Amino acid sequence: MPISGVVILIEPKKSQKIFNALKKTEGVTTYGLHKDIYIVAVFEAKTTKELETMSGHISKEIDGVLGVYPTYLHFEDETEEA
Amino acid sequence: MKSLSRREFIKATAASTAAAAIGVSLIPGMEKSVFAGTTTWHKSVCRYCGVGCGVMVGVKDKKIVAVKGDKECPTNFGLLCVKAFYLNRINYAKTRLLHPLVRKNGKLQKASWDEAMDLVAKKFKKTIDENGPDSVAFYGSGQAYTEETYIANKLFKGCFGTNNVEGNPRLCMASAVGGYLTTFGGDEPGGSYTDIDKCDCFVLIGSNTAEAHPVVFERIAKRKAKNPNVKIIIIDPRKTPTNKIADLHLKCIPGYDLPILHAMARLLIKEGYADEDFIKNHVAFSDGKNPMNYEQFKQFIEEFTPENAAKTCGVTPSEIVEAAKLFGQAKTAMSMWTMGINQRIAGVWANNLIHNLHLLTGKIGVPGSDSFSLTGQPNACGGVREGGGLCHLLPGHRSVKKPAHREAVAKIWGISPDKIQPKPGLHTMAMFDGLAKGNVKCIWICTTNPAQSLPNLNKYLKGMEEQFMVVAEAYHPTMTTELADVVLPVAMWSEKEGVYGCTERRSQHLAKCVDPPGEAKWDGEALMMLARRLGYGDKFPFKGPEDTWNEYLTLTKGTDMDLTGMPYSRLKKVRGLQWPCPSEDHPGTEKRFVKGDPLFKGEGKINFYKKPNGRAIVFARPPKGPEEPTDAQYPFALTTGRILEHWHTGTMTMTVPELNRAVPKAYVEIHPDDAKRLGIANKDMVEIFSRRGKAQMEARVIDRPRKGTLFVPWHWREALINLVTTDAIDPGSKEPEYKVCAANLKKA
Fold it and tell me: Is B599 helix (H, G, I), strand (E, B) or coil?
């Protein structure tokens, strides 16, 4: 089951709205706003497809998100399935 | 810690690693714990674009089970882009080739390495004996490791005696090379990514940075978010995700941006933003053939008023004025560009005109300022540009034309200087034209897919099918392996060690993390098998990549790209080093041409020492448009490019089902006004056609391209847009004009 640690780069003025939107997104756990422009989050999903979908949704659909940058990707189970 | 479940542990690790990447300690000690346990971590570099992001590859039970951004790496500080979600998956794709294939009775069939290599050697020998060395060729890649390109270069140029050695960077970076060489006298940028952190004005021209170089985009966006006065100017025919951070977008007609750059230069001088001292001391002027003086240059650009330029380029005069003002007023400025500038028949000239802006204002050679080309492939700079993997080059930024260069290389290679031809070989398009005409009869293709990536493909596919073609590839089938006579299974990223050199002159070591699958071998070994069979084994005593790298280093000693201080023993410890780096105690060079650069001469603030008089050239280039302007029959300007989820011909990203499903099929972006006029609705199937060919795909009606422009991501073989594109080339760089051709479309 893939898990990814990500940094979400945001427009500072829209941080609260973005937090609210992230909280409604299934599989996303946030770990705070840092340096006014970064939200640390963890994506959990059943498949890497869902990770991709989550990332795409957040970067394209949530206003004020400038980019989603993975930093850690754990996919042991999926590798075994491949 | 013991109270955490395994899943909670992984989550905490993931969160802590993300936080660490931005310099935040979320759960003290947790980030370090990722190194504990049964997973072994190896230092590497991302396989995709040219940013050179450091990655750590986690291996357990001989399989890659995790990837994390390397927070120690100064190119990305731990951040990656979304393609990294699937970095491990490319190794385990079902399309990995596990054994050699040889064509028998028209079909590719399983063979042993000996059988395959005996056949290859026999064909190469016979062809060279009967038709001379220029009847064979090598076509490599900006994705191959430096050591592999080095071996191929030595074998073909030094042993076979042909300069028919090319690489796919000819298709993406050659115009940038031409621009740097003509303006500064030496290839590659003078600055570094660190300039981004001090830059006050960015010009992103012909670059969708957010999608093509996401980690560089993050650094720019961070700079702007922390410093709202930072300005970002985009010059591009399309609105893209990069526009999220733009202050000004000059949405020009494809192929017509040169007048904008001249008009900006004119305004910068007229409005007093020029650095007259810098010009006086460090700049010379030329019309491309003859020297000129400053006054003559001013006279040349006088016609490029904002109004005149705007008419040609399809933007407004006020936008040009604003762009010049923002650039001029900023204390520091960086220009960045990619294929939108390079893949043009005026690619070199466009590069020159970008450099002009920096030279006229002195915004170069100081922290926060540079004229900084972004690279599209992970080792286009390192392996091909620096390693000399093009038909006119030799390793260490040397030229085949110069006797002293040939002698220096021949000495290290242990051959007679006469063996290296003084005449450049066939550039990429001429090489494949040679195949089509039968002049080139044998070709070795390494880590690239020209049967999908060349422009105007109808002209070249038959030659690839008819001549003897060896393809060394990790995957099968690709459009190129399908046409091959022999396909060799080779190790890919993380299955072999070597060095990549990225955009900012940084060479980084990639560890071997796992064994290659099946019978796959290192590309270097495959090439040396050919060398041994043809009697050149003594020239290749290399036991592996490290020996190869060590010999290559000796060829860089004393050059402007001195890598002598970068043996494997050092590269394995550090997160890359920037050349010139002449000794093992040298820290590498963050900024060229200024104090701190070991080659810097004199007392001034900057010395462009690659030019005889230390002066960089400001060029008065004519405002050349595209080779094929639109007309009544072909009224649309077609431009192609990348999207975030896929890369090049999709041989890697399309083996990942998730990426495939994210963007499953080809599409063409068409402006809503154009779509309405033609009665085309979103998701209609359309046919795009030009004078050369046609391709069918889905319409995406969207307000992204400017009216009259079509944009097609070029990744899909099922909708082969390179049947439509033009193979017209820049006369200097020989790079094709993928970015503009005249086309039309209709409902399919």
Answer: coil
Integer Cα distance of B471 and B487 in angstroms: 5
B215 contacts in A (CB within 8 Å)?
69
Q: Give pLDDT tens digits for B447-469.
A: 999 999 999 999 999 999 999 99
Pick the CATH number of A3-81 from 3.30.240.20, 3.60.110.10, 3.10.129.10, 3.30.70.920: 3.30.70.920
Give residue B688's pLDDT band: very low, low, confident or very high (50, 70, 90). very high
Q: Shortest CB distance from A70 goes to which of B58, B64, B84?
A: B84
Partner-chain contact B18 A51, CB within 8 Å = no
pLDDT by residue (tens digit) across B3-46?
457 778 788 888 888 888 888 877 665 555 544 567 899 999 99
By mean pLDDT, which of B88-97, B193-202, B591-600 is the weakest? B88-97
The CA-atom distances, in angstroms, between B622 and each of B205, B259, B300, B345 are 19, 9, 9, 13
Q: Residue range B345-362: average pLDDT? A: 98
CA distance A31 to chain B (A): 7
Quote the CA–CA distance of B327 and B335 in Å, as a whole number. Answer: 10
Q: Higher-confidence residue: B212 or B159?
A: B159
B215's tokens? 């980690």
Does residue B121 have a pLDDT over 90? yes
Interface probe with B: pick from A30, A57, A72, most Cβ of B within 10 Å:
A72
| Residue from the list B26, B210, B214 with its beta carbon closest to the beta carbon of A31 | B26
Query: Which CATH architecture fits B6-86?
Result: 2-Layer Sandwich (3.30)
pLDDT digits (tens, 9 = 90+) for B699-725: 999 999 999 999 998 777 888 999 999
**Which residues in chain B are contacts of A59 at CB distance < 8 A?**
82, 241
CATH number, domain B101-168+382-504+521-540: 3.40.50.740
Q: What is the full DSSP assignment across B283-330?
A: EEEE-SSSEE-HHHHHHHHTT--HHHHHHHHTS-HHHHHHHHHHHHHS
CATH 2.40.40.20 for domain B636-747: yes
CATH topology of domain B174-374: Dimethylsulfoxide Reductase; domain 2 (3.40.228)
Chain B residues lying within 8 Å of A46, measured CB to CB: none
Percent of chain B with pLDDT over 90: 85
Peptide bond into B580 cis (omega under 30): yes
Q: Does A46 touch chain B (CB under 8 A)?
A: no
φ, ψ of residue B25 in degrees (nearest 5)? -95, 105
Active site residues of B: 83, 172-173, 339, 376-377
Q: What is the pLDDT of residue B658?
A: 60
Tell me the two tokens of residue B620.
Answer: 């008065």
Inter-chain touch A74–B226, beta carbons under 8 Å: no
CA dihedral B165, B168, B173, B179 (to 10 degrees): 30
The answer to whether A18 contacts chain B (CB < 8 Å) is no
Nearest-neighbour CA in chain B from A49: distance (Å): 5
Report chain B's mean pLDDT, rounded to a whole number.
94
Contact A35 B22 (CB under 8 A): yes
End-to-end CA distance of chain B: 61
Answer yes or no: do A76 and B244 touch at CB < 8 A.
no
User: What does the domain layout of chain A look like in residue ranges?
Assistant: 3-81
pLDDT tens digits, B234-272: 999 999 989 999 999 999 999 999 999 999 999 999 999
| Residue numbers in A near B216 (CB within 8 A) | none
Domain boundary assignment for chain B: 6-86, 101-168+382-504+521-540, 174-374, 636-747
